[in-house]
Amino acid sequence: MQAEPEGFDRVLSSMCTEPHPVAREAAERFLATNPGDPGTYPTVAELEDRAITMLGDIAGLDDPSGYVASGGTEANIQAVRIARERARTDGIESPTVVVPESGHFSFRKAADLLDVELILAPTDETHRVELDAVRERVDDATALVVGVAGSTEYGRVDPLGELGEIAHEAGALLHVDAAWGGFVLPFTDHEWTFAQAPVDTMTIDPHKMGQAAIPAGGLLVRDEALLDELAVDTPYLETTSQATLTGTRSGAGVASAVAAMDELWPGGYAAQYDRSQANADWLATRLADLGYDVVDPTLPLVAADVPTPTFEALRDEGWRISRTGTGELRVVCMPHVSRSMLESFVEDLAAVSGRTPTAVPTDD
Amino acid sequence: MQAEPEGFDRVLSSMCTEPHPVAREAAERFLATNPGDPGTYPTVAELEDRAITMLGDIAGLDDPSGYVASGGTEANIQAVRIARERARTDGIESPTVVVPESGHFSFRKAADLLDVELILAPTDETHRVELDAVRERVDDATALVVGVAGSTEYGRVDPLGELGEIAHEAGALLHVDAAWGGFVLPFTDHEWTFAQAPVDTMTIDPHKMGQAAIPAGGLLVRDEALLDELAVDTPYLETTSQATLTGTRSGAGVASAVAAMDELWPGGYAAQYDRSQANADWLATRLADLGYDVVDPTLPLVAADVPTPTFEALRDEGWRISRTGTGELRVVCMPHVSRSMLESFVEDLAAVSGRTPTAVPTDD
């Protein structure tokens, strides 16, 4: 096999990144292990316990329960599944889930899979969910309210305290999707942790801003009993039940998550947040100088209304970029995204658009 | 992080194994790629196409569709999901799935997740599903009939041709679980492929007997339209839809699957099958000589009625062994399981049980 992977030198679209060197080393060392079979692979199973403890530290949860999932999609699916099972136990036959329209598309996948009704709540001009709209959509059939802590499109954090109140008043759970945000939010003023808001379950992925190797997602639950909603019996394995969605799982992901968190929490992640946020602020300023409407980057993620022909021309230059649902250019300032990459990107943008700083736009 | 993974020198329980050196190398090279985002990581997305083509070669399917899943559990879940969606399109409100009692527990997980009724069909004295029992359980509500090609407990292959006829007469699909068996069955007389039986969907995992790195499961479908049942829209990604259960996926798994199949299909896998089967036959003979009832290993997997105290004593000696649902010792002759390992295991078994070849049993 001669194929070589692309480098990251033009990747501005991904919410994953190059694993930290210690994370890569651990992934390679634990490549042939399976935490899904703890009787056979006990060392990596112990590492998973450590990963959950550390994720709890980051997310403000003493005595956390959870597991290292294949990624944020699995964790979001499992959160919806927990809520569905719990609602059924409470006699709700057709449970619903209220999700901000800024929620990741994995919630649509979860609803399809799990046969629950997904009810979208609109966001306001700040791209956070409208609380009144959530209130209108929550009723006795609501099993789960979702809040986003670092949205995929604009890096926004929903008002989680209020969402939790609304959910709990209706007897529903609050799930927070911090898949991408969880490793930058600790260094901001946002309120997002289990300690700061009445969060029941959370998605927080080491393989995104946590700089672990793929696959290393995270599901945390405040109350261990919530995990029991997921358990199925396991013959053949020398353990009695399994709460994960998948069976065989990646020990590489687990080991690399622990290695990355051991190395980087909290100082390394704080420094990376500072670099990424400074890069996002710099890029937002440059894009505004070129005359684009820019969505203020409250986390290290920049969106701007770059027209499709310009977007396509940048892709033709080799830039790996993506768009929001409404078509804006979206740049995620991951650890591999350096200032010099962004300088080169802005140069190319100026060239393909014919724009110069403070000049009148010519490409739209 | 100082933890080191256990070696494989006493692992007799796992259906995974050490990845082949070329598979390990490819996994390490593609560690930082994500086939779930083909717009950003096009090379690994192309490798996934190649993986599916090669899996189709192995499983007798020209022009195959499918994807590299996180493992057999995901592939089995998705097969049930395809059948559920298709049944609903046909107006079946409460679809059922008929699964041999020898089916993997992932089908129970799938049924729980997807809210379909799982109907178990008993197996006969040869540990294959009873066709009459399947016929009795299939009706207008049946969405899927499952056949196992290499069962987890005894390595048995169900009569897939007949199961397909029963399924199709009822308007249902046939799914074959060849997660473990798919890389040894090509070298046997069993009829299990898409070419030999009316199979609609199949699970076939490179990370088991295929010697790829975890996570590399496989889902194959005969008709590409079946995959459309799984598709959800994907904003943010420069592709339009996604049929996988997870979002971010492991490029390491995909690349290592291609590397292993390029290296080993068919000659290397054939040689490995010969070694593994010879080891299983040797172990079965030794266990019978010690006076145990042994289930004839038709594939490289040996089960025998070793009593619990002996089983526990072997675990105390460091052997990683597991049991069938009815409590028999179960040894999977994976590529890492050598003759000398088995000789050492049989010596320990004789020592802890107090049995000698042809002597009267003393441990039960």
UniProtKB/TrEMBL annotation, chains A, B:
Q: Determine the domain of life of the protein's source.
A: Archaea
Query: Biological process (GO) annotations?
Result: coenzyme A biosynthetic process
InterPro entries, per the entry? GrpII_AminoAcid_Decarb, MfnA, PyrdxlP-dep_de-COase, PyrdxlP-dep_Trfase, PyrdxlP-dep_Trfase_major, PyrdxlP-dep_Trfase_small
What name goes with this protein? Probable L-aspartate decarboxylase
Q: Name one Pfam family in it.
A: Pyridoxal_deC
The chain residues annotated with the modification N6-(pyridoxal phosphate)lysine are 208
Alphabetized GO MF terms? aspartate 1-decarboxylase activity; pyridoxal phosphate binding
Query: Which organism does this record belong to?
Result: Halovivax cerinus
Q: Supply the alphabetized keyword list.
A: Decarboxylase, Lyase, Pyridoxal phosphate
Described by its record, this protein's role is as follows:
Catalyzes the decarboxylation of L-aspartate to produce beta-alanine.
The UniProt record lists the EC number as: 4.1.1.11
User: What pathway is it annotated to?
Assistant: Cofactor biosynthesis; coenzyme A biosynthesis
Q: Which cofactor does it need?
A: pyridoxal 5'-phosphate
- Which reaction equation describes what this protein catalyses? L-aspartate + H(+) = beta-alanine + CO2
The family classification in the record reads: Belongs to the group II decarboxylase family. Sphingosine-1-phosphate lyase subfamily. Belongs to the group II decarboxylase family. MfnA subfamily.
